[in-house]
Structure formats: structure tokens, C-alpha cells
Amino acid sequence: MARRPKIPATKYPVERRTLDNGLRVVLAPDRSAPVIGVAVVYDVGIRSEPEGRTGFAHLFEHLMFQGSENLEKLAHFRHVQGSGGTFNGSTHLDYTDYYETLPANALERALFLEADRMRGPRLTEENLRNQVDVVKEEIRVNVLSQPYGGFPWLKLPPVMFDTFPNAHDGYGSFDDLESATVADAAEFFKRYYASGNAVLAVAGDLDLAETMEMVERHFGDVPARPAPERPTFAEPDLTSERRESYTDPLAPLPAVAAAWRVPDPINDYAAYLPYVVLAEVLTDGEASRLVERLVLRDRIVTSVAGYMGFMGEPWEVRDPTALLLQAHLPPGGDVDKVLRTVDEELDRLATEGLAESELARTQARMATHLLRDTDAALGRALRMAVLEQQRGTPELLNDLPRLVGEVTEEQIRKAAAALVPQRRATIEVVAGGNQ
Amino acid sequence: MKALPDLGPTRKLKLPKEAERTLHNGLTVIAIRRPAVPLVEVRLRVPFARANLARAAVLSQTLFSGTADMSTVEIAAELQKVGGGLSAGVDPDRLMVSGNGLVTGLDRILELLGDVLGGAAYPSDEVATERDRLADRIQVAQRQPAHLARVALLTRMYGKHPYAVQTPEVSQVQAVRPAQLRALHAERLHPAGATLVLVGDITPERALDTAERVLGTWNGGGKHVELPRTPAIEPGPLTLVDRPGSVQSSMRVALPAVERTHADHAALQLVNLLFGGYFSSRWTENIREDKGYTYGPHSVIEHNVAGSSFVAAAEVATEVTGPALLETIYELGRLATLPPKAEELEQARQYALGTLQLGMSTQAGLATLASTYAGFGLRLDYLPQYAAKLAAATLDEVAAAGAKYLAPANMATIVLGDAERVEGPLRALTAVERA
């Protein structure tokens, strides 16, 4: 019996509170460095944007930086950076986050800034048109000018899913972006940016009582609005294989991505967790199943990656979601052969099980990744905010390495057995870049 | 109106506990304690100037591809068992091995590192695999505008200096043979002048003992290779690189700069921030937040061992390429001829000071910082000195740095884009030469 390395854990203390206006607050003190991370997460993402308004959740994220009740355009950036901090925001399938990390002496400032835009961003025609232009440039940089731009996160969902929330382009079409109005933005803010639909998390060098008092002072008067009812985005699982391809004019080499639906990450956590570990067993490092077989032995792909959810965030996604595998192929590579070999390896894993130490070493490496993510105060604040929002358990952050470590070989085999071709959605990139 | 809260008292920069030892074979080991998470970060920096480009690149990808006793997969699996991972990369100054793992695995990670440093075998099969993978990655990079613009910029900046070409050709990579890798390893992969940085939940003196025990037998010797100082950047006509059909133009501007130990360093860092070095900079506020020409404009002082330079980069919409260059010249010229506002300088100063705190607040950040500094003969005690210089830089000094370093008359400029559409407007502003 191989000796299992002991999986270490963190012990960040976590304090939770709900303000009278419905805002949920999570505080996690850690005095090891004089910095703090502040995250505000709203329970709205790409899946909630209205039809005819693709890309709107992301466009709105940009508008949240364009001035607020007491602040001019550009003031937010200047105040965060002028306090020695950095900031950003990002739009996901199920949430939108806004965050900053700063020296600890700027904590109250950060709270003020976040509260001010929670009360109301300045939604003006001029700022909207300006940010539509900026977002178009963002899409050009990341999608239109890049080989494999948007692969697979924008390209695979429409193969796997049928309904607008799950299948549409979350970056948005230029037509939809250009036709967005200030009234659309005001409506979106009113509906989704309610105090009852948000979580504030602060991690790092803070005093609990003092911070809670500051939070009350700045967020307490944000008008109460309840969270909107979250519709179900459920879709039936695939019963037969789906496969599509497209030509990428910039890509010099073929690529492929495949996905299978997985159990509900929130409501069926115990069944979901083994898939998270399976993705790493398959692709984490040179000693993983698929890297060893596809890259090193058969040499039919040049890289292969496996992860959970279209944005690769296993702990920050709701149902429906998927386990994804993506691979880049050498010149003239054979996608069918790659898929056949993946099927063969999954079947071998399901029927023959894991090699000695294979699971334990994968779990040890996952623990390192999890602990490393939380070393930064901001990494802790962001993850805790989403854990609170989606599960009501921010302290789960401390338990993740242990829970990952408790997944058994039998569970991995069962998960691998479920990844059969008839439940698979595949997108193939045809290289158009060599003409 | 609600008022912005004041900042709390500034915390002084506190240096972590560290220890340093130079081993008999010439390896300098720096061990730094940051116990926040039970992990350790590893950075090994080996001087690698003038190494053959293609061979160095393939060597970095095959360093962990086997020893006399272990295969690629076995090395990777052994690292994984202690939650560890190691990977290597090269640039024109150094070969860098980076990794991390559970702190309980430090001995094992160093043993495995020692095994490959002393006995990497470069097996033919593995070399062939990695060579092809690297060749494919270079092919993909050659379709990426940012990469192509960088290639053109380096040629323009460095002429015949070894920094001018930093990516090998596909054919050069494919011609690399295992014997050449073994020869390059034997010649250059030695501890003389190399630095190993360990950061984490460690007792520094004990970590040094471990490193000495494990790596003290790494073969000393090797040879000392120095690069000539980089040539002065030659101003002159804008270099236009045609990329027909581009929806964006990649604009790059290079200007002279000075190394970290130069008397002008702090003032130059500040003037860089004022121009384009952070979001609240004049350039970003102008061409993004006011005009919507671009998504992520940015400028940075790049420090290399043989010289430093200022580089500004933006991807702008094709139709506004001329106007974007106009605004770039305008903002550089404004900083070169007019003093900044005191308030604006304070904001940049706070940002520079605050981000020093943030950069030190994680194990990974601290490790990268300490390793980078070590490559220039500096230690962490440089940080408080630098902070004091940032704090003391006067408006006059910053204005003088603007005049001395940012003058548009000294610009070397590259634009990569659809020449047919952008050449006319660019010619209206400056002389243009086709690449």
C-alpha cells in the first residue's frame, strides 16, 4: 500500500452576516500580510442576459466602472489605484464579480467605492457608446484576431445546448452590442444588481468588529431590493453524439474539444466532485492518463487539457455544466483517432481502475493548486464570495483540499464510465491558416 | 454627496525572514519564510546568455524528459506525489526552472531537481516529441498579431544584439538533435552564477541545509558568458508591417530607459505610470476611456540584464490607427515638455508603493520577485530603498525624467496591420518604412 501524503488544510476563520437590505457579507481575517482583497459578486451572468442582447452582462460589467452616485467617470480607477491597489471585474456564466486588492489601510475606501456603485452606476449614453467600442476591441483582441479565438468556450456550448441561455455567445454579437440602450442597462441594474442578489467578501488583514462596522456604515443604506427569482437553465442530457466543425482562418493546425454533462455541482455535490478529480487524473501533467497516452506515447496531439465548466472553474459554476477535454493536433492530425483513443482510455479507466498511487498523487497536486489559489487575499475573497452566493458555505474553502482527497477510486471509475460517446458534444477546428 | 474615506496609517514595508548561502559549487541559495499556506515555491535561475536559440528552447522543454533511472512519466509522478510540479523556460538572459509543492515535499522536489540537473538524459524519442510540440507552438505564435509585432519590435530595437531575435524558426527547432542538448547542458547548466530561491512555510536556515545537502554535489564549473550592453534605440521612420485583412493594428513604441540601480529609476517608473503604466494613466484614459480606440493599452519598463527599455503597446481598431498614434505622440510629448500635476503624481506614487506591498504578499509573488532581483545582483533589501526613492521623488525629478526618456523625437515605432488601410493616415504623422 502506497503511503498517501497527508493533505494539508487552511484554517481561515470565516464570519457571515446578512444586512437588513439583504446584502450577504463574508469576512475572513488573516494577518500574515498587510493587504486585503475585496470582492462583490452579483448573482447574474451570461446565462441571464435577455434574448437579442447577447454580450449584455459583460457590457454591463464595463458600465459599472463608469461613475456612480458620488463619483465621476474615471474616479473609481483613480481612487483604487491612488490608494495603492489594483482592480478588475469579470463576467461568468452564473455570476459577475468586481474586486480590488489593496494595502490594508485602504479597506474603508474600497468598501465606499463598492457601495457607491451598488447604489447606482451612472448610466449615460456617452459612456455606453464608449464602452460598446471598448468591448468590440476586446472581442477583436481575444477572438477575431487570435488563432483559436473563443475556442472552445464560445464554440462548444451551441453544440451541446439548445436553449438561448446556455447556447448563445456570451461575448455578444456586434449588432446586439451596438443596439443596447441606456434603458436596457437601467432595467438590468434594477433587476439583477439588487442588494439581495449580491455578496460582499473581504479577506486579509482586517479586524472583524471594525470591518463589520465599516460595512454597515457604507452598505447599510443601499436601498433594499430582493433577489430576482433565478430561472432554471436545465436542459436534458444528450442521448446521441453531437459533432460540428468550423474553419478558423487564423489557425495553422487542427484542434478539437469534447464535453460531457456532469451532475449538478451545487445540489449533487457528492456526485459532481469525482468528475473534478477525474479531469485532473486525465490531464494534469506528464504523468496523467491522456498526456502520457496521446502526447508522449501515440503523439497524436501536441497538448491536451481537461477541466470543469466552459470557463474552467469547478467551484464557481451551476447546473447545467460539463467536463471538457480539449486538444491541439499536429499538422494533418486525425481528430477521429484522438476521440477514439480518449474513449479507449476512459473505458480502460472505468474497467481496470487506477494504477497504484495515481489517485493519491493527483489529489496531492490538486491540494497544492487549491492552497496556492487562496494564498492571495483576493483569491480567498473571490472564491468565498461565490461559495457563499451559490452554496451559503464560504468556509467550504478550507475544506476543499480535504474533500478532493476523499474522492475514491470507485467514484473515479464510475465517473469515467459515464463519459460515453453518445453523451458527447464535440467541436472541431479545421485549420484554415495555411492557405 | 458622500465623501471618500481617508486612508488609514501606512504600514511600513516589512521584509520577511530570510537566509542566504553560496555553496562550494557556486550556487547561491536564498530561503525566505512566508508561512501563510503549507507550500513552498521554487525558482532556479541559471545564466544562459548566448545559448543557441533553438537548442536552448528544446532543452528547456526536455530537461525533465528522463534520466538514466527515470522516464518523463516517472519524474512527473514522483513530483506529483508530494503535490509538486516543475517546469523550465528560457529567455536571452537565463534558464529558469519554476515550481511549487507541498512544503513537506521540499526535500523530494529538490532531489528530483538535482537528478535532472546532474543527469538529464535527453532521450531521442522524448526529444523528438517535444521538438515537434515546440515547432507547432511556434507556428501558432506566428499567427498571433502580438507575437509578430513583438518580433518586429525586437529587431527594430536591438539590431544585431542577441536580444534582437528571441524565437527560433520552426526549421531550426526541427533540426535539434539530442547530442546537441547534452552538449549544451554540459557546457552551460552549472551552478556558477545561478540562484535558487525557496519561499514558503519553511525555516530558512534549515531549507538552506536541505539545498546544500541535495544540490551541493551539482557539478560546478561551466563558463561565464556576458552580453554586450544593448545598443541605443535608434529613432527614425515608423516601421509598418503588413498583415492584410487585420481588423486591428498592433502599435508598439520603444524608448530608452535605465536599470533599477540608476539614479533616475524611481522617477522613470513614476513617469511611466503617468503615461501608460497603469489603468489611471493618461494614455489609457485618453485612447480607451475617452475615445474607445482600444481595449488594453499598456506601457512598461522592461529590465533585461544587458539593458532596460520603455515599451508601450496597444491593439487599436484599423480605422483609428492614425488617430491612435496621434494621441500616443501627444501624450508622450505632453509628459516630455510639461510637468505633471502634483495630485496626479501622488496618485501614481501611491500605486507604485501599494503594489510593492501586494507583490510581496504571496509566496509565488515573493519568489518571483526575489529571483528576478537576484538576476540583477539585488536582494529584497533593495525594496525599502526603492520605496524610499519612490516616496522622495519630486515633481521636478519626474518632469525631468519625462523630458529625458519619453521625448517622442526618440521613438522607435512599429505598426503591424492592414498596410493598405493604415499607411496613409500614419504617413500624415510621421515618416513610414515598410518592413
UniProtKB/TrEMBL annotation, chain B:
Q: Name one GO molecular function term.
A: metal ion binding
Report the residue ranges that make up the Peptidase M16 N-terminal domain in this protein.
59-164
Matching InterPro entries: Metalloenz_LuxS/M16 (IPR011249), MPP/UQCRC_Complex (IPR050361), Pept_M16_N (IPR011765), Peptidase_M16_C (IPR007863)
Pfam families in the record: Peptidase_M16 (PF00675), Peptidase_M16_C (PF05193)
- Peptidase M16 C-terminal domain: from which residue to which, for each copy? 178-350
What is the designated name of this protein? Peptidase M16
